[in-house]
User: Fold Nitroreductase from Microbacterium awajiense.
Amino acid sequence: MKALGTVAAVIGGILALLAVPLVVVIVGVRSGDRRFIRALTRLQRDVVNKGAMQVAGQPGAPYAVVEHVGRRSGTAYETPVTPIRDGDGWVIALPYGDETAWARNVVAAGSAVLRFDGERRAVEGVEIVPIADTALAGQQPGVIKLFGIRWAVRMSDAA
Assistant:
């Protein structure tokens, strides 16, 4: 019986160690602290996105790719995103706020290419909108509330 208590304590400790980074991320994102957000977006760009880009845009993949051009640099970029259908277009949550670089680039250009489920789609009419005004509000209310997400990018399929 004592061995079970020790195993339970070890498992509990491991779970606590795994929960701490998640809590830090949630609190940091909700706080809107620019230094924290910058550090987190660098980590995402340099580590997480590299893995996501291995499958993003392919048939059946959970991620799509937004192809866009830097508004000042003119450099071509590819950013993995998770869009959902919203009427005749798409919406993408902006958990790091409305100053997210890829979103600002796409809004400035007014158009982009969305690679989703093995297809390249031209999109236009790009705008940043309150997330409450999108299909995401009804589909992911728990995540939106947990992270305090206020903004989303809305874009329409090009004619």
